[in-house]
Amino acid sequence: MMTKRQFLAIMYLLTGVIPLIAQTFTEQKKSYPVSADGNKYVVSGFTPFSSMQDENIYANALLWTVKNVCPQLREGITEVNVPAKNFSCDLILASQADSNQKNTYYCKALFQVKDGKLVYYLSNIRIESSAVIMKKITPMEKLQPDKKASHKEIMDDFVQVESQVLNKMFDFIVMKQLSPITHWNEISINKPVKGMTEDECLLAFGKPQTIQESNGEVQWMYSSSFYLFFKNGHVETIIK
Q1: Phi-psi group of 85: left, alpha or beta (phi > 0 → left; psi -120 to 50 → alpha; rest → beta)
Q2: pTM for the complete prediction?
Q3: pLDDT average, residue stretch 114-121
């Protein structure tokens, strides 16, 4: 007679849900293909995070972007709409070191959170290649992957690179233990207030230009006239 444990084990195998040894998106090497949207090449779809609240999905997605896309402040993030839970950014991606391609890819990425899902839409994809066929920055729409093997290799390389980036973002969304966000209104208008956490400040203003620490107090400088002083992880003093 089948035990309850055996029954559950079989159900986990059938559904592909094995909670104790669940693989990350990166470990699964999930791939997000290029598709045609009218006369454009895009990468589009959605990923569900059903156990998370929309605002936490949104906060973690935006926080990952600040940490990994912006060189400083919120550079590279082109629009943030907190009430609509969307934002857009410019991505610059490079071929992997072990790839036979040596390309740089530029694209616009739009993210929106709705009903427990993160919707993504990558468009305006352009390629900068060291190859003779493409010394200038070329729109992906110029490629003819069905006719030219070299073009298909470039497109496959782009899919590998953007898929790796999206998987890293999705892993961060799942794993990042976010401190409670209680200052969404201030974040949406980039206004510093006492009590904000470091995560909230990153969401509102991006990466600080300098960080200093002394005697248990942390100082973030955003410009020569904008300083935030933290104590116990919260803003205690603001100098503007």
Answers
A1: left
A2: 0.87
A3: 98
